[in-house]
Amino acid sequence: MHEVRGVVVKAKNEPATLETILVPDPGPGEALVDVLTCGVCQTDLHYKVGAVGEDFPYLLGHEASGIVSAVGEGVTEVAVGDAVILNWRAVCGQCRACKKGQPWYCFNTHNAVQKMTLADGTELSPALGIGAFAEKTLVAAGQCTKIEAELAPHQYAAVGLLGCGVMAGIGAVLNTAAVQRGESVAVIGCGGVGTAAVAGAALAGATTIIAVDLDDEKLAQARSFGATHTVNSRTQDPVEAVKALTGGFGADVVIDAVGIAPTFKQAFEARDLAGRMVLVGVPDPGTTWEIPLDQVFGRGGSIKSAWYGDTLPSRDFPMLVDQYRAGRLDLDGFVTERIGIDQVEPAFEKMTAGKVLRSVVEIAPAPGTEATR
Fold first, then answer.
1. Does a structural domain hold residue 355?
2. Phi/psi at 342 (5° precision)
């Protein structure tokens, strides 16, 4: 049993606090990971306010990089000393999705069986089965994707973001929408996920990339990640603006990275005939939308939701790390600030205020780093 520090929220809407937690040695199929970095994601805030469930207390954090420090019986995916990115899609290989050759939809993803606890023995629910705002965490071995490439110490914070939000946005473009070279893409909402979708569109070779948001600073930021045009929907009708920028037709692909009824409707209407629309923004429970069925039929194309960007970590993480190292994907640009493990609660406030793309908690020195925080 390992006694370490971790960031816990004990009840709905309570502050996230730094607590002593107990982490077991790995059992069969499990891995113990020394966490290096972990991004502060909107999903962690959803856990904090009770929007995900009521299984408090939660051990927060999931966008992480780390070093495997121990493995349980039967583990072959990773070994002690491996640098890894943690993921929450540890595919089972046996469910109906996996057997159909669609493991990115796995309906029975694995998590660690053993429980991490508070010092008094209270069981913790790890965010997305990971719980990485901690010096050590216990996960299913399949939740570890090995980093084969050599990285500089500062780069671990960037690649760890592939564990959730950045991958969700890029995957919505590359996997769910399957954007092709020369296509037009509009992205509604330029927070972390939407900006990642812009970067994904540039990576895919889209030639017209339209960023839509209410905030001029976010739009300027989207340009730095590859947007060719920007639309402030506070002052312009976004549907008409997207059409005007695409010959009057609408975009081949529109990504809704917000997930509210008005932006869903805008995305539906801003696409070309036979265009594709992808919902990657997470709606609040009970959110509804109304679009006449004759328009659904008449416009053709497709309306899809992106689950984690239809990501297969073993396929997508190494590819995107390579694109990052080749200078084609600016993962460093998503790291707005680097903070300590005791600064998660203030980071939530900055995120809610839209002041950051990602605050990244640096928990342990990365390989090659001599000085500690």
1. yes
2. -90, 10
Q: What is the pLDDT at residue 370? A: 60
What type of residue is 316?
D
* Structural domain count, the chain: 2
C-alpha dihedral sign at 338, 133, 22, 314: negative
Domain interval for residue 246 = 178-305
Please give the pLDDT value at position 368: 84
Sorted by sequence, the CB contacts under 8 Å of residue 244 that are 6+ apart come out as none
CA dist list (Å): 178 to 100, 184, 186 = 19, 12, 14
Residue 334's nearest CA partner among 35, 36, 39 is 39
- Are residues 156 and 183 part of one domain? no
Q: Kindly state whether residues 131 and 37 are assigned to the same domain.
A: yes
CATH of the domain at 298: 3.40.50.720
pLDDT digits (tens, 9 = 90+) for 63-86: 999 999 999 999 999 999 999 999
Rg over CA atoms, the chain: 20
Q: Are 221 and 198 within 8 A, CB to CB?
A: no
The string of pLDDT tens digits covering residues 106-161 is 999 989 999 999 999 999 999 999 999 999 999 999 999 999 999 999 999 999 99
Cis before 57? omega within 30: yes
**H helix or E strand, kind and range, residue 17:** strand 17-23
| Separation of alpha carbons 240 and 243, rounded Å | 5
Domain finish residue from 256, 285, 305: 305
* Together in a domain, 9 and 142: yes
Report the pLDDT averaged over residues 289-315.
Answer: 94
CATH number at residue 28: 3.90.180.10
Q: What is the value of pTM for the model shown? A: 0.94
Contact partners, residue 214, CB within 8 Å, separation at least 6: 232, 233, 234
Of 130, 150, 1, 154, nearest in space to 61 by CA: 130
